[in-house]
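Reviewers asked in the last cycle whether our approach scales beyond single polypeptides. To address this, we selected a multi-component target totalling 1119 residues and predicted its structure end to end. The input consisted of the following lines:
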Amino acid sequence: MSRLVRRPLAVLEWRADLPLSFRYEGRRHQVRWILDEWWEMGDWWNAGRDRRMVRVWTEDGACMDLECEEGVWRVYRIWD
Amino acid sequence: MFVHLHCHSPYSFLDGASSIESLVAQAAAQGMPALALTDRNTIAGQPEFHRLAAAYGVKPIAGAELILEDGSQLVVLAEHAAGFRHLCELLTRMHVDARDRADPRLREADLFERSEGLLVLSGGLRGFVQRALARRAYGEARRFAERYRDVFGDRFYLEWTFDGLPGCARRMRDLLDLAEATGVPAVAATEVRAASPEEVAVHDVLTCIRVGCDLQTPHPERPLNRLGYLHDEAEARRRFARDPRAMARTAEIAERCAPVFPADGALFPEYRDGSGRGGVELLEQLVWQGARERYGRVSLELQMRLEHELAIIRDLGYADYFLVVWDIVRYARSRGIRCAGRGSAADSVVAYCLYLTDVDALNRHLLFERFLSRERAERPDIDIDFASDRRDEVIDYVYRRYGRDRVARVATYQTFRARSAVREVGRVFGIPDELLDRLAKRIPWSTHADEIEEALERVPELRDFQPYRRAFRWMLAISRQIAGFPRHFGTHTGGIVISGEPLMKVTSLQPSASGWLITPYDKRLLEDVGLVKLDLLSLRTLAAVEGALRLGTARAVDYDRIPMDDEATFASIRRGDTIGVFQLESPAQRALQVRLGAESLEDLVASVALIRPGPIQGNMVDPFLARRRGLEPVSYLHPKLEPILGKTYGVVLFQEQVIEIATAIAGFTPGEADELRRVMSHARSRAEMEQIGERFVQKAVRQGVPLETAQTLFSYVRGYASYGFCEAHAAAFATTAYKTAYLIEHHPASFFAAVLNQLPMGYYPAHVICAEARRRGVRILPVDIQESDWDADVPEPGAIRLGFRLIRSFSERVARALVEERQTFGPFRSLADAVMRLPQADALHFERLIRAGAFDQVESRDRRELLWQLPRLLALRKERNLALFDNPAAPDPAEGAVGLSKSVPPMSLAERIADEYSVLGIGVSGHWLSLYREALRSEGYCTLAEAGEKPEGARVMVAGLSIRPHRPPTKSGKTVVFFTLEDETGIADAVMFETVYRREGAVLFTPFGRLIGLSGVMERRGGLKGQIRVEHIWTLASG
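The resulting structure, written as structure tokens, was:
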């Protein structure tokens, strides 16, 4: 199960061009593993934008999909 | 260095979003040394790809993406010509053996059998290896890789793709591990579907069309991201950073691949007759023999001309080409299959002497160089028309003569046009089908997919759709981008290639829907791969001629000896009575004939060339007519033009004249002059036109022609640009036109019956052909169960008995059974009798026979009563069959059927006529308009016959069925609508100009435009027969 949240995050640390740690809803999350990474082009016919998706496993055991659209990172989905 | 090795073009049918030129241009712009084209299950794009690659300086690698039996894909590249042959054989095997023509599959055993010369890539995301890795079935992936490694050795690669989909990183890692474990090298690849990231959106839409979903529907085939484009090397370095050797291998593969098409090109067979003779010697013998037969004696002029032509044919090595065509025509004639050469071949006296054409090029002073010249690299192109009903016999002969592995039909590709783009693209964007259907039906037929937006602006009947412009914006944008992309694959109407060697050296073959094997190459590019195309065309007019000569009074006609100066025929042409006449029956042609006053074949030759977009847009028609009639002096810009333009009254009408002008005025060599013609007639670039224009002017001035005259002359020549008609072709068509006019004038029942048997042909539907036949005094006898055959017949002089073939969806098999039953066991006594005796005919057949009036003579009861009775009779037939099965002596239930009659109101005349139009396409009980004549008269309408009697300038108000409204191009660019009206008294032509069209005329192009009323002015423009200039037009259909 998962929850779609699509809320902003603040990147605190980078590894290459991916977030290594970030703050979301007041909590700091440290990325332990990058599980997967993919690209989507969105609803191009409906002004949707291209985005990069990253599935991360954090030190505190959360699995999240992060999205980056035009340089802005958000938490897209949180997996239970 | 990086080279793309897995690339789709639009020939992958809805799985490639950029034209071949875009892909090649992009590769060139990125400095790539090579590019592979690997369309799905086809090599159709290879000739175009090779031509463009040569132009852009990119090395072409030929290949294809092949689908295996399990649905996984492989990329197969041809290492050299022998490998390409294997690829062609594999594709042919796949297509020939395919259970589903749209989804051919490759047997792995076939691939292994023909592995030599092929490089195989494991096939990307949909390849077996990556599919297995995605499922973590590592053992399966390994066994596959090892199997292919064992067969292909160092010619097998694991395709290492960066597709940016979920799981991509793991699959890439696993694939490199597999490479290491098996020793199979990995090669970096991107599955390219578009030249740029932006065009991936087009691929998305095309995929939706392919899989049948809209953009809101997720589908695994749809692109998730924009990474499948033809990226540059820097992007490749980013994607494949983990193993630079995999990138380097792309260049190594490109280096390994050699050209696949023969360098010298010529694959045409050598011709040998039964005694082994052939070549120039046989050709010369046949030509001189033909010259003596055609001309009686060989004059010095003829001898010089033939020697000139033969020398060129010999020097260019085309003797076999002429002999092959001669052999085909000889076969047709020996079997009584009517044929006639058309096109530029009629410029050749050799072709005339070989009986390939019927145009005397010598006495018409036609230029051989228009057909064939030393300067031109192009092969000759001889087009022959054969009677449509027997053309396939000729093609069969060609297959037998040269071998099934050396002959193939040529492909044709239907591309996205405006109507198909609207329907298919619009649906993807979720626009309601009903709206798309209405829009598509109103878009002019010839509109291209990239002209829809312009049509919405310009065409009045599309005005209603203006409010949807915003909703349509994506549909319009995508349609623009896919304009010209191939959409459907089919068989070219007459194109055939004959090869001296097995065709699979250069092409794959695949069966058409009708079973012919076709090369997938477009006809325009066959030469590039060394193939020569012959056009063995099927012409319904010749079949109609042949049919007419077997009917009624025309049986006595010797078609080849029809007098070419028959005054009655010319008088009829001068009156514009040319409905049914080959090439002269359109309203524009009929109007022209009235003004032209044709007196000889020469006038008809000019007519055929005059009613073309070029002369019309160039405003050449009126000056030609005025000079022809002596109303305007004939003048020439330069004395040297007089001998060239004399026969067309100083007007440039034919392509040959352009060549002669360039030769006489500018001293162009024949080859240079022909280059000029080609630049013009192929609508090449403005730069090319200016370049050749400069050369024309410079050379003309050097010849002593004043600068201003030379410039003016070239402006005339440029104005000719889109004529594209050569005199030889016009002369060939004019000859057939005259002969059909002769048959119509003297044997109208025979010819029109034959035309009805060949429909659809020509310009008009059945009801107009019948109206014209009636006007000429021919009686039209209805379809009759006791009298009719499958074809229309001429049972007595001056009468046509309509055939069953006119009945919509009527089966020929049923018609033949009906006639046989009637001939064997006697006439049908009633509907019941027919139902019982014709088990082959189902309810639909009987219903249509009744509605067409076929039982009117045999049954005293009304058609509605018969229709009412039909289901019961069919039930009885079924019962009888069951009873007979049990008891062969059971009584015939039809005997009691008469008692089944039920009293129902009879059909009104209007209902009968409506039924006849619906089932037969013509009214035999009367004409629509006759039903309303009284009411129409009371409102002031006159008949078309009465309107035709009115003087010039008289105002008329008429009503009728509108026929073939069309909007040809005009010089001013304004719209002029031409159409024909038909009522119970005949037909009349009408013309409607821009203002009226914009105000009221759009109705003609809507479903309400079939039955119309109009008011206007009679105009005769110097002729006897007038046309109506429309002032107001309205529908009579909705009331």
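The interface with chain B takes residues 36-41, 43-45, 50, 53, 55 of chain A (CB under 8 Å). We regard this as preliminary and will revisit it once experimental data from Aim 1 are available.
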